[in-house]
## 1
Amino acid sequence: MLGTTSASKKLAQMTYGYWQSQCLYVVTNLGIPNLLQSGAMTVETIAKETSTKVETLYVLLRALAHLGVFVEKPGRVFAATELSEHLITNAEPSLGHFLMHIIEPSMWDAWRELGNSLKTGEVAFERAQGKNFYEFFMTENPDSRNLFNNAMSFLTNQAIDSLFEVYDFGQFDTVMDVGGNQGALIAHIVKKFGCKGILFDLPHEIETAPAFLARQGIDQDAVQVIGGNALEEIPKGADAIIMKYFLSVFSVEDAIKVLTRCKEALPKQGKVVLLQTLVPPRGAPVEYPDGTIPALAAVQMMVTNPGGYWRTEQEYKELFEKSGFQLEKVIYTGTSLTVMEFKCHEVIQE
Ligand SMILES: C[S@@+](CC[C@H](N)C(=O)[O-])C[C@H]1O[C@@H](n2cnc3c(N)ncnc32)[C@H](O)[C@@H]1O
């Protein structure tokens, strides 16, 4: 349609990208991958089960069959594939939850404001929704909040084995996950290494954490759940603080504030273990094996968070040094998640 050279084909595919993501969102939101777990179905049955119109649904399912998400069989029958199985949302946190969180209407609206936000300096999400990302998700939109929490748990579950192969959390007595969401990561750590855990996140966010931790088989006294604002105060009691996809939520100024609060909370020689996807330096491969393109994800962070973005290894090192920490080691996990371990140091320049 748009040309046949490899350059024009590549651009055409990028242009169509949003058609594909919206089609995926709609079928996942309708629960069609869930339905097809029990076997192939005619489009008429799927339409009945999802209260949709047969003919328009058919156009959508056929498109996704051509993209390999479903298989179309004779008689307008559709069946699951390995791709659609990843979109099942009625069992464990899955890629389907992640996809729905990334493409849900509030995000879609926020991306529409990207161009305007470049000119005005506002956060695109706030322009679109009239409120901060976390206020929107945590306080007034329980469905969006559940999606967000499941998306975060999915990312953690996916990375956990390779993380535990390279990093021993058993060296600590008490580990605190700051910005730990519902507690997926701290639950894995406590179970695997037997140390004590503290889960710290915004007060609204931790409301659901005790029930989530109980479902993971975590005893109440194994993980202490504390609500608060990391910009203001981080509780004492841990010899290590972990932060996964947390510091990237903040501007440089606020990240330094959070790290200063970490330093106040930790004992002398305490450690911060940063878990992040790093933006590669110029000249290095731009894509991780799991398909993550950090520079593109950095735009998503910019669309949603005031001043937050994904950073390079060097930028994190400098951020921590300014906040009184010293880089001890960097451990690559073989996935898009990298571990950077920092130790408390003397100089603080807030
Ligand atoms: C991108 S999520 C990452 C969650 C989790 N660490 C993970 O990797 O799955 C950021 C988390 O930071 C929390 N958060 C944001 N601002 C915060 C603040 N000022 N104080 C404490 N937690 C905060 C959010 O509620 C959310 O759970």
## 2
Amino acid sequence: MAAPERQPNPPSDPSEAFRAYIAQQGLRGTRQRMAVYEAARQLTGHYTADELLRRARDIERSVSRATVYRTLPLLVGCGSVREIDVGRDHTYYLTENGGPAFRAQLVCERCDRIVEVDAPFMEWYGKAVAAKHGMRPVSQRLQVSAVCSDCQRRAAS
Ligand SMILES: [Zn+2]
């Protein structure tokens, strides 16, 4: 009888990386913090802190607004979530899914619709421009203000 095939190691639980990160900050993975983490994992597309709060409360009723606001920088710090400032009074967030690091955003000026586009040329551009000045690029962003097709149609009618 053949020996059972060895199972490859299961992928490590991504929440462990978050727990390890907050432990480094001297914080515990409380039910509330982990609910905010889980809510961010569930949300697709761009969301606000309030939308994250609503989703987190579906998971754990005791999550407070303050917990969400204190947990967001931790999610950003450990690389789970990206902060997207579109120059409004509220910030948008996007949960990272391991896609390409260099992305640009098209932001509709009228309705705040945000479209993420892969921008591999940015990596090349950033490196080339920085090298010229003897600098090493750390991050870069490209944001294009635009008017989406729905808003164009609304304006035309
Ligand atoms: Zn629009």
## 3
Amino acid sequence: MITISPQPKERAILIALSTGDYTREQIEEHLDELELLTDTAGAETIFKIMQERYRPDPAYYIGKGKAEEISQLIELNNIQLVIFDDDLNPTQVRNLEKLFEKKILDRSGLILDIFASHAKTREAKTQVELAQLEYMLPRLTRAWTHLSKQYGGIGTKGPGETQIETDRRIIRTRISKLKDNLHKIESQQITKSTSRREYLTATLVGYTNAGKSTLLNRLTNSDVLAEDKLFATLDSTTRSLELGKGKTILLSDTVGFIRKLPHNLVASFKSTLNVVRDADIIIHLIDVSHEYFEDHIRVVEQTLDELGANKKHQIKVFNKVDAINDKSRIEMVIHNHPGSILISAERGINVNNLKKNLIDVYEKHFVEQEIEIPNSNSKIIAQLYELSDVTSIKYLDDVAVIKFRANRSNQNKIMRLINGQQ
Ligand SMILES: Nc1nc2c(ncn2[C@@H]2O[C@H](COP(=O)(O)OP(=O)(O)OP(=O)(O)O)[C@@H](O)[C@H]2O)c(=O)[nH]1
Ligand SMILES: [Mg+2]
């Protein structure tokens, strides 16, 4: 009998620099998050190292002495991968590769790797490949390509193997082809989203693993993949959410955010993130059971800023209340974030309150109006039902007095219909 043993995981050392911008505890937390990312990418963290330095070393990022120390650790512990929490420049990568003779990755490279292995739709795959190539282009040094070819595993997925021998010119051609494809995908989506303008739209945003997909499933009885994994979702899914009495909004779930999300990744995911830009309401979901949830809020706010979506109507929803034992944390949230809602998407706790809140926003957004229509004009009355939320209808002798609620564009449409036909 032949037993197939699983491929052993690559063994990694994680390194972060403390330059005084963050406290030691915060950097430890960044390293913990990097460990989670490493695990998601399929490697095992053996050591986490933090060095205090006034600023990064231009040649090695960490100090030369520290680098030599790490070199020994690598040798003694059979390490295959060295991952840095910040982005390195091409010179630093080259020097470190020469010294360690191992594969060097930074946080951006690692995130891109995870995105590459999770991408399922044609759109997500195109977006990730574009981001990877743009990331790779300035790093396409001889040492880098040589080493990437030699070692398998993480850090070499996606376009790595196939494009590695090609020169920059070919990569640039590929980049512009991918951009073209994305433009096409985007224009298809614009057509789709114009028809969606008839509805009020809400998009779930939040740090990765906050529970966005779980909440979408809970609210709309869907079965979008939700799991305890970073970046489980890489595309956007839209479902209709019935709020009762004919009130329907379109709710979307999309890719999660994380600190130091590579800029070219955000840019490449433009078409996926259009659901954020186009939304009437942003539902910002926060995992309140996470120790550093306030940091997560800041990261999400910054990313919304970057996307130009920071001025939208935002509802802060604190998720995973079921996982908090410390009551004072809940009190602190209520105090620091007035108007926010605490829920458990998984257990369904307080989700109705969120729905009530959405109904309120819906009612504010959709203006109520009263009109009179001749009783004989049943066609217009039928169209009114289609385009709006009819709240009351009274039949008098010749006319029907109708109160309805609609968004502005549908209201204009209705008025045009009435004026055209009366
Ligand atoms: N305890 C607890 N866990 C939850 C709750 N909501 C979601 N989770 C868990 O959190 C994990 C992440 O949930 P997802 O819904 O995949 O999170 P997401 O925000 O869509 O994550 P990405 O798509 O990876 O960015 C899963 O293991 C869920 O079961 C909750 O209310 N309480
Ligand atoms: Mg998700």
